[in-house]
Design goal:
methyltransferase; tRNA processing; single chain; 2 domains; seven-stranded mixed beta sheet; tRNA_MeTrfase_Gcd14; transferase; alpha/beta; Rossmann fold
Length: 301
């Protein structure tokens, strides 16, 4: 099992995703002899998981059942243990596209946090790229490094425990892209420029407050960055459902010329025919603001 290479069969020491329902998933470290308790009963790793194919339907001790899925960055984002506020798929998709990430890219990231974006970056740049991720908090950095080893992507990432605003990313002139998710990104712009490759490169800064965006944009301008722009991504998910709608009864067809006997016949009973159709309904509430994404390009001169 690896977050960047898919396997067919669940093995001992794998990280599997238990799918209990549309809004309920949980990660499990598969271990011989271990058990996992769910609301549907116990899952016994030795008999229920190890040797089974990913995607299998597993019956729990109470008779309920779950699906066991191969881990992906998307599933990890909705099931990971939160050490910090995380980025979600909507922003992650925009970031990976706008930074022009692809297999072989070298990326610098700060801060690592809970590793939601990190896993998406690693899958995108595998198998030959590399992620240099910086985390100021020692315990979070150690936990992130441990998770990367468990997820078998540690060969693609270097974790550093340091202050990016003072000490930079630990590399110079190698990065194709930079991502900043820190309280004062404007203080790290100089280090970001130094970490980017000599000719070109893209930068993205995530900030929840517009005042942070203003200071960051000023710093990017002062350091010669171009194509500076800020966007905000808002997601609106529609619910697809089947509904039953009655067919309207417009009465008899008055355009036809009825026979004389037909004029004396009683009117037909109203039709009760209905039809089932697929439709969508908009959400009652629109999720609010997550953050601003500020992008910029280092000139190729």
């Amino acid at each position: 099992m690896s977050f960047v290479e898919y396997s067919e069969v669940i093995q001992d020491s794998d990280v599997a995703i238990i799918y209990l329902g549309h809004n309920s998933v949980m990660p499990v470290k598969v271990q011989h002899g271990a058990q996992t308790q769910t609301r549907y009963g116990v899952i016994r790793h030795s008999s229920d998981l190890i040797g089974q194919r990913y995607g299998s339907k597993v019956t729990c001790s109470k008779g309920g059942w779950v699906y066991v899925l191969h881990p992906t960055p998307e599933l990890w984002t909705v099931s990971l243990p939160h050490r910090t506020q995380i980025l979600y798929t909507t922003d992650i998709a925009t970031i990976t596209m706008m930074l022009d990430l692809k297999p072989g890219s070298v990326v610098c990231e700060s801060g690592t946090g809970s590793g939601s974006l990190s896993h998406a970056i690693l899958r995108t740049i595998a198998p030959t790229g590399h992620l240099h991720t910086v985390e100021f908090h020692q315990q979070r950095a150690e936990k992130a490094a441990e998770e990367f080893r468990e997820h078998r992507v540690s060969h693609l990432v270097t974790v550093r425990n340091q202050d990016v605003c003072k000490d930079g990313f630990g590399v110079m002139g190698v990065a194709d892209a930079i991502f900043l998710d820190i309280p004062s990104p404007w203080e790290a712009v100089g280090h970001a420029k130094a970490a980017l490759k000599k000719h070109g490169g893209r930068l993205c800064s995530f900030s929840p407050c517009i005042e942070q965006v203003q200071k960051t944009a000023e710093a990017l301008t002062d350091h010669g960055f171009e194509e500076i722009n800020t966007l905000e991504v808002l997601l609106r998910v529609h619910d697809v459902r089947t509904v039953s709608l009655p067919l309207p009864d417009f009465g008899p067809d008055c355009s036809a010329h009825p026979e004389p006997d037909a004029m004396e016949a009683p009117p037909p009973a109203p039709s009760q025919t209905s039809i089932n159709i697929k439709t969508t309904t908009p959400p009652r509430e629109l999720p609010g603001h997550t953050g601003y994404l500020t992008f910029a390009t280092k000139p190729r001169t």
